[in-house]
Amino acid sequence: MDRISHTNLLKLYGFCFADDIKALVYECMENGSFDKILYKNPNSVEWAKLYDIALQIARGLAYLHNGCGEQIIHHDVKAANVLLDKSLCPKITDFGVSKLMKSDVTHLTNTRTRGTDYYSAPEIHQPLYPITCKCDVYSFGLMLFEILGRRCHIPKNKIWFPHEVSQMLSKQPETIMEYCGIMEKDREKAMIVLMVAMWCAQYTPAIRPSMKDVVEVLEKEMSVTTPPYPFQSHNSLGHSMLPSLQGIPEVHPEVPVNDKSLAISCPTPVVVPHMLITAYRVEENKQELEEYISKEHKGLKKYSLMDLQKFTSWFSNMIACGGFREVYKGRFPDGVEVAIKVFADGDIGKEMFMSEMRAMSTLYHKNILRAYGYCLDKKMMALIYEYMPYGSLDNILYGNHRGIEWGRLYGIVIEIAKGVSYLHEGHHHRTIHLDLKPRSVLLDENLCPKIKTFDSMSHITLTSPKRTRGYAAPEMWMSESPVTSEADVYSFGTIMFEVLGMRNNNQPGQRWFPQYVWEKFETEDLEELIEELGIPWENREDAKRLSMIALWCVQYTPRKRPSIGTVVKMLEKTLPVTPPPMPFQVSLSVVDEVDDDDVEEEEESESMLELYEKKCPPGGENSVIIYTTTIERMKRSFKESNYVRKILQSHHIKMIERDIPVLFVKGRLIGAADEVQKLEAEGKLQVLLYGIPTED
Fold it and tell me: Are strands 371-377 and 301-302 parallel, antiparallel or unpaired?
């Protein structure tokens, strides 16, 4: 920061490097961060001014990339990292994860560098992938989508906004401006913002423009062509944002490209999924796969690509996409509606196809999504499932839940539990789902729930299974921790809390709902909570039972959780429900490991735990408790304590300092400096901090 200077970069005045304090002194930004205007008070600034802010941010990034002696990649471009002065002039800040390169270096090798989830370019999440300034271009593109819609682009139980408007451009472009609330006088500039955003957010880095080109387009010194659909991995390098742009950089060999053009401006009568454009080279493995499938999965019928084209009217109705998969609605010749899941080409798609086929083809239960067949063609890997007209459970819980009686929701919970019980105990291959959440439960025309998408496992050592924050059990975030079926029980417990509250557990601006339920239970105010939630009188006993079972399911220690079979019996009232213990309590074995040398004189890890809990009640304040160094015989240095404090400050969360030798988050023991540093390096600390109030 001391070597760069630009009107759109936060100015550094000086620093302090004393024994007891290290600090940087910056100019003060009276209007705070840009995200507060975009997300909380979007109509306070005219759209033309927002366009000017976007242009100035682009100028600041162009300076970092090309305007100073050494190329700087910011690596964390987002609205929260743009500050506004009293004149609403934007200043880019927070260079904590930025990378400095010599001007003649074209890329960096990616090892652990990460920005912010939902803003980072796709290549950042691929180990050893070359990182260039195009990562910043991608993040800037997502910020442009936010400026266009004057909203956060991160999906909150809705369609991802960039995907939504990009699809609208290909189908109903005239509706975009009205949908975004753009007035007639601003629509020309708004369309430029949309075009540039789509170019910047291209999946393939080489197709994205430079920030210099972006500035020229926003300044209207260059026209912009219609971009291809951005959120795919196989765009033609024949595309160019600028008519005069020549010599697009050579794409990295790890980025697959095709030889077809998919420009939205020239739609064809036939809509084909992008993974079909490039033929999947399965000749080497085709015979092996076919032999395996014919031997192990006799219950699945094989279909050809032509069959699927007929079933789907040439893949004309996509109903879902993401995660190397696209789902299309189709219909068998006898009229039965189906959902056809098409897997992307490449090793990841193949692995997902085989894993899902292995899991789904041998399962048959009324609460498990039924697989009808598969397609394994040179150009296609797909599975055919029954179609679920009501979509996923989260649509009901977070959206139109008032149209369903609470008693029916209780019945849905029982049926989900029976489906999970079948996976754990009713099938000859013990199966752990590992990603249970409302979105993993689909509803048919009778609101019968069907569990979808899981991996077949028994008792594993955790490496990198799919995890969803807010639903994954604590042990799933711990390296080398054994994961068993109790992980599914924990996730099922979080689903029950969401059914109870008919809301997301991590509702913005509200406390974590499971913790709130526990506090009401602990103070014997559970009936008051149930009344507060608006649950009808005739269902309140069931709601009380549900809340107590949920508290049992989310016990921090896996062995304290009931089996899913026991959960079914408790829900069906064939077993009584005893009062649950504190669910967010840390097992004593964890505390024993905090610092053996320091506590070996303490007789009693239990007494130490009581001390910690007295200082930091588990499940207490919804904030972080950071350790200090005043407890006698604790060998935690100031340096370590200060290091943890800095890590927490980088996440902008509120902290409470108490005289305890370790870090607690939401009542959970996280550990000391070494553990915190490891979690931060692995990107897991941010997940643990999810839902913690941020600093004003």
Answer: parallel
Closest C-alpha to 169, from 151, 147, 186, 193: 193
Q: For residues 617 and 515, what is the distance between their CA atoms, to the nearest angstrom?
A: 12
CA distance 463 to 465: 6
pTM equals: 0.48
Q: At CA 364, angle to CA 285 and CA 570, rounded to 5?
A: 130
Inter-residue long-range contacts of 657-660, CB under 8 Å, 24+ positions, other chains counted: 657/625, 657/626, 657/628, 658/615, 658/616, 658/625, 658/626, 658/627, 658/628, 659/615, 659/628, 659/630, 659/631, 660/611, 660/612, 660/615, 660/616, 660/625, 660/627, 660/628, 660/631
Structure tokens at 506: 């991590």
The four Cα atoms 302, 303, 305, 308 give a dihedral, to 10 degrees, of -140
Q: Which residue has the higher pLDDT, 626 or 494?
A: 494
Does residue 236 form part of some domain? no
One-letter amino acid for residue 6 of the chain: H
Spell out the alpha helix ranges (H) of 297-405: 305-311, 347-360, 393-398
The tens digit of pLDDT for each residue in 617-627 reads 444 444 555 54
204 with 101, same domain: the answer is yes
Q: Per-residue pLDDT for 554 more than 70? A: yes
The confidence band for 150, taking pLDDT boundaries of 50, 70 and 90, is confident
Final residue in a domain of this structure, among 544, 571, 598: 571
In a domain, 527, yes or no: yes
Clarify whether residues 481 and 524 are in a common domain.
Answer: yes
Domain count, the chain: 4
Q: What CATH number does residue 121 fall under?
A: 1.10.510.10
Containing structural domain, residue 650: 588-688
Torsion (CA) 188, 190, 194, 199 in degrees, nearest 10: 70
DSSP 555-602: -SSGGGSPPHHHHHHHHTTSS--PPP--TTPPPHHHHHTS-HHHHTTS
Are residues 48 and 161 both part of a single domain?
A: yes
Which residues are CB-contacts of 527 (< 8 A; sequence separation ≥ 6)?
Answer: 540, 544
Residue 72, SS3 per DSSP: strand
Among 455, 306, 301, 456, CA closest to 383: 301
Instruction: Give yes or no: residues 441 and 491 share one domain.
Output: yes
Same-domain pairing of 639 and 673: yes
What is the longest distance spanned by two Cα atoms in the chain?
79
- What one-character DSSP code corresponds to residue 375? E
Distances, alpha carbon 108 to alpha carbons 98, 102, 129, 327, in Å? 12, 11, 8, 35
C-alpha 38: how far from its chain's center?
Answer: 21
Alpha-carbon distance of 27 to 347, in angstroms, equals 50
